[in-house]
Design goal:
- The protein is α/β, with parallel strands linked by helices.
- The chain has a single domain, classed as Rossmann fold, CATH 3.40.50.
- It has a seven-stranded mixed β-sheet with strand order 3-2-1-4-5-7-6, with helices on both faces.
- Helix 5 links the parallel strand 4 and strand 5.
- The mean pLDDT is 94.
């Protein structure tokens, strides 16, 4: 098995770094709030939930859901054949080749309770197409979970000499402020169920370490403190379709 799909320049990880002890620990911490929300929201056994992950990378989320949380109905979609091949070494999920921008997606035979699209939208020239196409594959009570880089002041500070951590990913062509995503969600008739800044403090040197030490000393979660949580690297949004909800209520 190769260690990296060289054709997939959107994905910076290697297999060894992603599935290493430290890498796995970080990824689990990153995904846990989303998984906990899913389980609480549906109030049912994980083996009854149908989940589609869009942009699987090397399949860690699917691996985690399968191996540690007992999900049985897992699917994935990715445009990179080699990345799909790598992911299939770690999960038995049904992963199919496809692109967000191309309709239909290769899932006319199934609808999903949950569709995740994590750290993908910032790579698209027209992210709005995701909010249009994804609805077709969602059950009436389904939810969609997205994450994308948090473009607040700390992100802009990445360009500062000595303290900034530059975003060197050339495929990050649509990093936007949170208000952009909120507007796009509203425009396309989605309802935000939960929104938070998360994953880990990043973007600049020194300041996140100070925040972490103060948070530990006074026992508070920096992800829940306005302005301070801007230093979290990711904007996380869970949403439901207003159109599907209305159709469900009409019956």
């Amino acid at each position: 098995m190769i260690n990296k799909d060289k054709t997939n320049i959107t994905f910076s990880h290697t297999v060894s770094s992603l599935y290493s002890k430290e890498g796995s620990k970080f990824q689990e911490k990153k995904y846990l709030p989303k998984i906990e929300f899913i389980l609480k929201y549906f109030k049912q056994n994980s083996d009854k939930i149908f989940l589609l992950d869009i942009g699987v990378g090397y399949g860690f989320l699917l691996y985690l859901l399968e191996q540690k949380f007992g999900f049985k109905h897992l699917f994935g979609m990715d445009p990179f054949s080699e990345s799909i091949k790598i992911a299939k070494n770690f999960t038995s999920a049904d992963i199919r080749k496809g692109k967000i921008e191309i309709n239909p997606w290769p899932f006319d035979d199934v609808k999903f309770d949950v569709i995740t699209c994590l750290d993908v939208l910032e790579h698209l020239k027209n992210p709005e197409i995701f909010f249009i196409n994804v609805r077709k594959y969602l059950k009436k009570n389904g939810i969609v979970i997205i994450t994308t880089p948090n473009k607040n002041l700390p992100y802009l500070m990445r360009g500062l000499p000595k303290i900034g951590k530059p975003d060197n990913n050339p495929t990050h062509i649509n990093v936007r402020y949170p208000r952009y995503w909120k507007k796009l969600i509203k425009k396309n008739n989605w309802k935000i169920l939960k929104l938070w800044y998360g994953e880990h403090l990043t973007h600049v040197e020194y300041i996140p370490n100070v925040i972490n030490k103060v948070a530990k000393l006074f026992n508070f979660d920096p992800r829940k403190i306005p302005i301070i949580n801007w230093f979290e690297q990711s904007l996380c949004i869970i949403m439901a379709s207003k159109i599907l909800i209305n159709h469900k209520n009409d019956r």
